[in-house]
Amino acid sequence: MKKIYISLFVFTMSLVNAQVADKSPGVIVASSSSNQSSQKDPAIILYNLSQSIAAAGNAGVVFFGGQYWVSAWASNKIHILSNTGAFVETIQIPGLTGVRSFTTDGTNIYATANNANIYVINPATKTVTGTITTPSSSSIRFATYDSSLDSGNGGFWIGNFSTNLFSIKKTGASISSIPAATHGMVGMYGAAVDSSKGIIYVYNQGGTNSDEIRALYTSNGLKAGNTYDVYNETLQSAGATTSLAGGLFLSSQVMTGKKVLIGVSQATPDNYLFGVDTATNFLAVNSGVKKSTFKVYPNPVSNFVNFDNFKDIKYVEILNMAGQKLMSEENIQSGLNLSRLPKGNYMLLIHPLQGSVVIEKVIKQ
């Protein structure tokens, strides 16, 4: 396959329409195009999916064992690509069809198919080995694994278009939720969690181009960084005329030293597999109050955590990783005594005298 170098690889392939309102896009037979573009962000990687997959309606994505798994939402086909975007094989897993999203805990791959279940897949045998029934009152479109949930035992964030964001245990039991009124999205299709930062990235069929990624704090659903318009920043210059958000996954294995959001954009005329470096594209939003203003140390902490510039702090709230408030302190005198808290991970919501809340993750040992 011919490679074009433009600070990223763009693979030239045939053309596919985008999914609209969960209806399968049609296939357009056309000649190949160069797809040369000048990306605003050199950390973007971009693959045109159409020729290698030769199928429409691409949805879920996960990067596992050096390969991409990409699902066809309206069939039982799962397409496997190499780490360079080249087609490897198409598989069908008995008992699994219409996959909208994938995620992984590093051992199993998990899939959702617009119902109340999360399907457990053994990636070696490519078989369903179990089913997790979720408490969602509506069908779920995505599940994303969060290792910090359930006191470090791990769990999932789930949702569908305009629902609440729910966190659940691996057993399916409920933990917490972020109300739809808080996150404000009505087109959530894919999501990915950075457990180390307490941030969930949601790929939303909203915004100007129906193709945006929002970053939220899992502790409270507040905005955690800049919104990224995939179409405007990436796909328009690659030749897309419209776009629509699909599946999303976070990986530190695709690009050395970087955490990259891997997404499927159901664009017209081509579907794309793209990657966005979270470090350079999702800068924290603090309304003029820089995060470094409130340096928190030591971290991990045994008992007492200190703050730089503590005189600029109005009050501090301490939340567990499920978003439940445990304590609140005013009149901060250089720091906080956390000795009463058990060992674990916590979120400090620092409310400054001016500006927006600053959130820091602290490990109590």
SSE order and pairing:
Elements lengths: L14 E2 L10 E2 L16 E4 L1 H4 L4 E7 L2 E6 L4 E6 L4 E6 L8 E4 L4 E4 L4 E6 L4 E7 L8 E5 L8 E5 L5 E5 L4 E5 L1 H4 L4 E7 L4 E6 L7 E6 L10 E2 H6 L9 E7 L8 E6 L6 E6 H4 L14 E2 L6 E4 L5 E8 L4 E6 L4 E3 L6 E9 L5 E7 L1
Antiparallel strand pairs: 1-2, 3-22, 4-5, 5-6, 6-7, 8-9, 9-10, 10-11, 12-13, 13-14, 14-15, 16-17, 17-18, 18-19, 20-21, 21-22, 23-24, 24-27, 25-26, 25-28, 28-29
Structure characterization notes:
By secondary structure, this protein is mostly beta strands. It folds into two domains: 15-281, 5 Propeller (Tachylectin-2, Chain A), CATH 2.115.10.20; 291-364, Sandwich (Immunoglobulin-like). 5% of the residues lie in helices and 42% in strands. It contains four helices and 29 strands. The chain has helices at 50-53, 180-183, 230-235, 278-281, and strands at 15-16, 27-28, 45-48, 58-64, 67-72, 77-82, 87-92, 101-104, 109-112, 117-122, 127-133, 142-146, 155-159, 165-169, 174-178, 188-194, 199-204, 212-217, 228-229, 245-251, 260-265, 272-277, 296-297, 304-307, 313-320, 325-330, 335-337, 344-352, 358-364. The strands form eight sheets. Strands 3-22-21-20 form a four-stranded antiparallel beta sheet. The chain is globular and about 65 Å long. The protein starts with 14 loop residues before the first strand and ends with a strand.
